[in-house]
Write a structure and sequence with these properties.
heterodimer, A: alpha+beta, 2 domains, 6-stranded mixed barrel, two-stranded antiparallel sheet, 12 helices, 12 strands, 52% helix, elongated, B: alpha/beta, Rossmann fold, 6-stranded mixed β-sheet, 4-stranded antiparallel β-sheet, 6 helices, 10 strands, 30% helix, globular
Chain lengths: 399, 237
């Protein structure tokens, strides 16, 4: 038996190709949306991977340092370092802000890293060009996606930083490139007020009789000094000694240091379950809408193609064609349209993904699931047309 | 199976029920022998199409009897279970317009029927080519319907009606869209094929040009058929 669907497609290939390309572009958008979500998840995981930490020690009762603000004293790391099972502990600050690059600026996550060197928690684990930070001030290592080059000068608050190293895939959970600078500079950028504000605060403090008491010399100076000091960081990153489980160290830290401690799994849960959850739901809604639109378009196309052949279907039924042969013809056409659309969509998504400003990750399992979904949509969409075709009265062929 | 053509007795068809019932076919009687071509004529609304649809097993008669090649296929109810197979294997159709499948070439338009009946593709195409040769359109065997002239399309349609060697062919206004010369050519072909394949052919027509060619004519008026001798002597091969 010849393939009626195949013959019809070959006969009207132009119509099928153009329809398939149109559908493919829609499927391409769907695949790209899925890639955007995967990219967000991958960015979140990259953030955790690149920190090099096994534990994140943050302010008690917060979801810091990524999902909520967190402040802990910058000397706590010494206490933590002495705990059993702790191999390394390092202060870190995170601040997402606009970083000036020449005349423009770029959204970036500024990371303050403690003195030490490559391999310390918080430091970029590898560079693609240049060197690590070696000075205590005004040097930066920047993710390549920020669009800067070695030797460029960045402006963060009122200070300027020279780019001495470039790294790759060091991004925040939002996909913003990371800018690594010395911890002290980062603390200033995050906590220190501008000169006018400091001056204003000094005057207010001096004018406050509680602090500027007659007969208590030095009190007001001490208060002012405490107000201008930067003794906070956002978190302490902890790397464990071999043989210690995360909770073996986390439990005593929570109990005795009165801090909140997250291990890798918990931090991943915060990032994926809370920080990007809303965005993920947003994308999921888009995916649902796109799937419904795709289904509607396939259904409409198949319905139109079937209606164009009503007379032929009546003749086929009159001359004894089985219903299942006619249904198979319509179903096969819908599936061919789906396969064609998927191939076009996959190619379009693959070529379009690198053009997006944020990371779009196309994973094979999404392609497999999308392919199955497209075929399922095509099957469901063809049911309306099949129903119409099976209702055609063969008597229509007779005048 | 011996060929004895088609015979219908007291065939009736009622549409609707109660006060709105319409008796479209009251008393239709007809007998067409193998190799014979008869005309079925009548004014609009006389019941021609209803009779054709009953003969084609497309609609159910209300009462009566139909005998095809000595086999009772309807006797106040269908006596065959699979009407689709009956239409496919034992009744041929030729329509007013050729209604060829536009995405199949001439050969496959004809070969489709035997293929539907389970004949192997090659054998079905061979059978189609033989018929196209007999109908003098073999040179257009690979052409798509849109590339065929009106006359060629109608000959391919006739080949499709004949390909399963049915004992009866129902031709519904087969010459309506054709000019006189082509209409006469189609009637000549139908006569030739009827004789060659011992097929009974019933031609429903309004076409004044071809009515004189029938040896026998059935007039239908208000759902009642009446036989009369035609003026024609058919076409000698």
């Amino acid at each position: 038996m010849i393939s009626l669907a195949g013959r019809d497609i070959l006969h009207a290939w132009g119509k099928f190709v153009f329809t398939g390309v149109g559908l493919g572009l829609l499927i391409g958008v769907t695949l790209t949306m899925a890639g955007v979500y995967r990219g967000m998840v991958d960015d979140g995981k990259a953030l955790l991977d690149n920190s090099g930490a096994d534990l994140w020690v943050v302010q008690q009762g917060t979801l810091g340092p990524y999902a909520e603000s967190s402040s802990v004293f910058d000397d706590l790391w010494r206490d933590i370092r002495t705990m059993p099972g702790v191999a390394q502990a390092a202060n870190v600050t995170y601040l997402t802000m606009q970083v000036g690059t020449g005349d423009a600026d770029v959204r970036a996550m500024v990371v303050g890293i403690a003195a030490g060197g490559s391999g310390e928690p918080g430091w970029p684990p590898y560079l693609v060009a240049g060197r690590h930070i070696t000075r205590g001030h005004y040097e930066a290592v920047v993710d390549i996606s920020a669009g800067v080059r070695l030797g460029d000068v960045l402006r963060i608050r009122r200070n300027h930083y020279t780019v001495v190293g470039l790294t790759r895939r060091m991004v925040s959970s939002s996909g913003d490139p990371m800018v690594f600078i010395p911890l002290k500079d980062a603390q200033e950028a995050q906590f220190l007020k501008d000169n006018d504000a400091i001056l204003m605060q000094r005057r207010r403090t001096e004018g406050n009789p509680e602090f500027n008491r007659p007969g208590v010399p030095g009190l007001v100076d001490a208060v002012i000094a405490s107000q201008t000091s930067n003794s906070y960081v956002n978190a302490i990153l902890v790397r464990l000694q071999p043989g210690f489980a995360a909770q073996d160290v986390a439990v005593p830290l929570r109990r005795w240091k009165r801090l909140t401690v997250y291990d890798r799994a918990e931090m991943e849960g915060i990032l994926l379950g809370k920080l990007i959850a809303t965005s993920a739901r947003q994308i999921a809604m888009f995916l649902v809408i796109l799937a419904v639109v795709s289904a509607a378009i396939v259904a409409f196309i198949i319905y139109t193609l079937t209606m164009d052949k009503i007379r032929e279907i009546a003749v086929l039924k009159l001359i004894g064609t089985r219903n299942r042969t006619i249904a198979a013809m319509i179903l096969q056409q819908a599936l061919v349209l789906g396969v064609l659309g998927f191939v076009v969509g996959k190619i379009a998504a693959t070529f379009a993904a690198p053009l997006f400003p944020k990371y779009v990750l196309l994973v094979p399992i999404d392609s497999v699931l999308s392919f199955a979904a497209v075929l399922a949509i095509c099957v469901v969409s063809s049911l309306v047309a099949i129903r119409v075709a099976l209702k055609v009265d063969p008597a229509q062929a007779i005048s | 199976m011996a060929k004895s053509g088609i015979r219908i007795e007291r065939l009736a068809k009622r549409f609707g029920s109660g006060d709105t019932a319409v008796l479209a076919l009251k008393d239709a009687n007809m007998q067409v022998a193998p190799g014979e071509v008869v005309g079925l004529i009548g004014p609009s609304g006389s019941g021609k199409s209803t009779l054709l649809k009953c003969l084609g097993a497309v609609i159910d008669p209300t009462a009566g009897r139909m005998i095809l090649d000595d086999t009772v296929i309807y006797d106040d109810g269908w006596k065959v279970r699979d009407l689709r197979a009956l239409r496919r294997d034992r009744i041929g159709f030729v329509f007013q317009a050729p209604y060829l499948i536009p995405f199949l070439d001439a050969t496959d338009n004809v070969a489709l029927l035997p293929m539907l009946a389970g004949v192997a593709n090659d054998a079905a195409r061979e059978r189609a080519r033989e018929l196209l040769t007999a109908l003098d359109v073999a040179h257009r065997a690979q052409a798509m319907p849109a590339q065929l002239s009106g006359g060629e399309q109608q000959r391919v349609a006739i080949a499709r009606g004949l390909v399963n060697r049915p004992p009866v062919i129902l031709a519904d206004e087969p010459t309506a869209p054709l000019d006189s010369a082509r209409a006469m050519a189609v009637i000549r072909i139908l006569n030739d094929m009827a004789r060659r394949f011992e097929t009974a052919i019933i031609v429903v027509t309004h076409d004044e040009k071809i009515i004189p060619t029938f040896r026998r004519i059935y007039h239908i008026r208000d759902g009642v058929t009446q036989e009369e001798a035609g003026e024609g002597r058919g076409f000698e091969s």
